[in-house]
Structures are given as C-alpha cells and as structure tokens.
C-alpha cells in the first residue's frame, strides 16, 4: 500500500453521481480521494492546489468540458493520469478525450471492480479500455496517438491464432472448439496474451492487435 494512497480527484457536474463514486473510492485502502470538482475550470484549479495522481472526469460539463480540461491538464500537469467517464453513446467524445491526453475511460455504470482496476492501471502508466467498449470505439482508439504507446512483443503462431479469435469476440469455449484445445488451455493462453500486451481485457487486446497490425478490421468482421 502507498503511504498516502493514490491521490484522486473526481470531476462531474452531477452531485449524486460524485457522491456515489466517492463512496466506492473511499472504501479502498489504496485510494485517497482528496477533492471533487463540478466542471473543468474547477478541476484545473483543484489540481493546481492538490496535485493528484489520477483524475476521473466526466466529458460533458458546463463552463469547461472534460476534453478541454484534459488538454490543459496534459500540458500543465503531465504526471496527472486522466480517466474519462462516459455514457454509452459518446464514442466520438471518448476518442477525443484520448487524443487530448486521457489514459483510460469507464462507463458511468461500471462495476466497482472495474473502476478500481482502471485507476490502478493508469496510475502505473498503462491504458485502460472499458470492457464494454463498442467495436466502433475500439477501432477509433486503435488509431489514437495516446493509446499507441505500447511496445510490440513477439507472439508465436498459436498465440496469434487465439488473438485473432479473441478479436472476433469469441468466448474461451468457442475458441477451444476452433483450435482443438481445452477451454482451460485457451484460458491459459489468454492470460499470457494479456500479460504480454500489458492490457486488462478483450477491448485492450483488440486495440493492441489493430494498432500493431496483428489483425485487420476486415478480419474482425470476417
């Protein structure tokens, strides 16, 4: 555990949402929720005062939205890691957030375990892609400058086959049937692939695979 925990600020113009997210974060011993902000201007002022490690910010806010705030934060406070909070129908805005400097994104109804994992991932300088990402958004994120800072590693032929099937969103059982392996063996391969890519879920695998040309958009749709 960190001495003071990962220092976090939440920014959202809806008090009820901020309070609900605060309750989740305050229960985690490794987290230190230090402030809440109501819009981008308020967020920047509080970052200047408190120097957080991670910020979770809504995209749509009055006064200054999350995209503009992220651009300023990335320029003035480059060590602060930003996670975008979004609704289901905001793919273009999420992509804009990554271009502005965000390191991760979560749907506002994300499970608490995913929120915890996202914060820890971006704090450790990784990217976090919400498990429920649409394929449209995944393709957009694969082209994002901010989402492209991962070193490519080598994969053997079996791993490449499984990567392509993961990208087609097949389950472990469906993949096992395709490659004539047990479900447990496929799950082992999947865990190794996630570790080698340094990603956390299927969305991360697809972004990595597209970005590093392990699969094409046409193959995913095939």
TrEMBL record:
Pfam families: GerE, Response_reg. Transmembrane segments: none annotated. The modification 4-aspartylphosphate is found at residue 58. InterPro entries: CheY-like_superfamily, NreC/VraR/RcsB-like_REC, Sig_transdc_resp-reg_C-effctor, Sig_transdc_resp-reg_receiver, Tscrpt_reg_LuxR_C, WalR-like. It comes from the Bacteria. GO terms for molecular function: DNA binding. Residues 148-213 form the HTH luxR-type domain. SUPFAM superfamilies: C-terminal effector domain of the bipartite response regulators (SSF46894), CheY-like (SSF52172). Keywords: DNA-binding, Phosphoprotein. PROSITE patterns: HTH_LUXR_2, RESPONSE_REGULATORY. SMART domains: HTH_LUXR (SM00421), REC (SM00448). PANTHER family: TRANSCRIPTIONAL REGULATORY PROTEIN LNRK, TWO-COMPONENT RESPONSE REGULATOR. This is DNA-binding response regulator. It comes from Solitalea longa. The lineage of its organism: Bacteria, Pseudomonadati, Bacteroidota, Sphingobacteriia, Sphingobacteriales.
